[in-house]
Design brief:
By secondary structure, this protein is an all-alpha fold. 86% of the residues lie in helices and 0% in strands. It has one domain. The chain crosses the membrane at residues 6-27.
């Protein structure tokens, strides 16, 4: 390479290095934002899973009670059904 070509590369490098630094900083900020978004999504998903698990447990309890009522052939079936109506509802 000739000396003129080397001297022509110096301003190009002088301009491209700061541009690269600016782009790298922007990429880091974008990556941090995406990481925060993923953490928030994971937290919300965990909360929803806990709520669903709670509701499923309540429903399973109710199904178990209904199963006992249906399979039990006692004389006091009407009394048991009426006692269930008096209990407060657990579902929101």
């Amino acid at each position: 390479m000739s000396e003129n070509a080397i001297f022509a590369l110096i301003p190009i490098l002088g301009v491209s290095i700061p541009i690269f630094g600016i782009l790298l900083t922007g990429f880091r900020r974008w990556a941090d934002l995406k990481e925060k978004q993923l953490a928030l999504t994971a937290t919300q998903t965990a909360e929803q899973a806990a709520q669903y698990a709670n509701r499923i447990a309540v429903l399973e309890e109710r199904v178990a009670v209904l199963n006992r009522i249906v399979t039990d052939r006692n004389e006091g079936l009407a009394v048991q059904i009426e006692s269930l109506r008096d209990q407060p509802k657990k579902l929101n």
